Amino acid sequence: MKKLGERIQELRKLKELTQAEVAKKIGISLTQMARYEIKGVQPPAGVLSKMANVFGTTVDYLVNGATEEKAKASLKDAELLNQFRAIEKLPKEKQSIVKDLIDAYLFRTNIQQQLAR
């Protein structure tokens, strides 16, 4: 399993960002960013949160990594899990549309539940 620094580096490269660019976006020094990636220094919670936002992931993924077993354990519905996998393969703009639709549906459901009380 990959270590935190390796996951940070992998995500940074996937986003085609330099260490300096990430450091600037999250408000830390380049030296500190290098420590997180190379030396395995554990960032504080606030920095982890900012990193997760920059990389479009979760703090949980940064700290613990993700495995197929974790996904299956947290998402019991196999069909839904397969749909999310298919969505991940879509172009970013199409993924955004799907996320907006899900957000709208969840918002509507939440409002309906609030009104039913």
Description:
The protein is mainly alpha-helical and 117 residues long. It has 2 domains: 4-66, Orthogonal Bundle (434 Repressor (Amino-terminal Domain)), CATH 1.10.260; 69-116. The protein has helices at residues 4-14, 19-26, 30-39, 45-55, 59-64, 68-74, 78-88, 92-116. The protein is elongated and about 50 Å long. The chain starts with a helix and ends with a helix.
- Beta content: under 5%
Largest sheet: number of strands, sense, barrel closure: none
Order of helices and strands: HHHHHHHH
Mean pLDDT: 87
Q: In the CATH hierarchy, what is the superfamily of the largest domain? A: lambda repressor-like DNA-binding domains
Number of strands: 0
Give me the CATH fold name of the largest domain.
434 Repressor (Amino-terminal Domain)
Q: State the helicity in percent bands.
A: over 70%
CATH architecture assignment name of the largest domain? Orthogonal Bundle
What structural class do the secondary elements suggest?
mainly alpha
Low-pLDDT residue intervals, each spanning 5 or more residues: none
Distance between the termini: 46 Å
- Cα shape: elongated
